[in-house]
Structures are given as structure tokens and as C-alpha cells.
Specification:
105 residues; mainly beta; 2 domains; two-stranded antiparallel sheet; 47% strand; elongated
Amino acid sequence: MHVKKNDTVVILSGNDRGKRGRVLKVFPDKNRVIIEGVRFIKRHTRPNPKNQAGGILEKEAPINASNVMVICSKCGEPARTKHREVTEEGRTRHIRACVRCGEVF
């Protein structure tokens, strides 16, 4: 996936288009991500030992990963990512980099 946990992303489509947020959780098998402060849903919960009050809770719901784009920390703009292999001290690492400026995420 082009998005990982704690990346700062911008929403490309939907009701929250243009909003920026941090990725809280990634579901690679479903190609979905949960972003902080985006796409709130209401959950009706019963009172239980963990949640004494119960009631209606708001929480973030997952959105499709194709609807988000990573924001480059150097450019400050949304950018596509490219994957590269870097060899350091005989070890090969896979890194993600900004297509525009080459900054490593």
C-alpha cells in the first residue's frame, strides 16, 4: 500500500474532500484506511461494564485507500509515492519516496 500508519494524507474525493489528517489504522487486505477526524459515523451502544453510560458514540470509519494521497513533508503538497530499493551495508531496504522532490517518507 502507498499509505502507512502515521502518514499525513489529504482526502481526494467524498464529503470530506480537501481535509487533511493522520492515518490511524491501515487495513491492507481490504485496501482501506482510518483517518483522524474524517468520516464520522454514529454507533448506538448499550450500557456495559466498559461503557457505563452507553448512548450514541461518534467514531471514524474506514475509507478506501485510493481516495487519499500522502502529503510530502518537504514539499507540503500531496504527492504520489515511488518505491525504491536502497542497499546499505550489504542489506537491501525498500523505501517510499516523493515523486516530485525525492524526499523519503
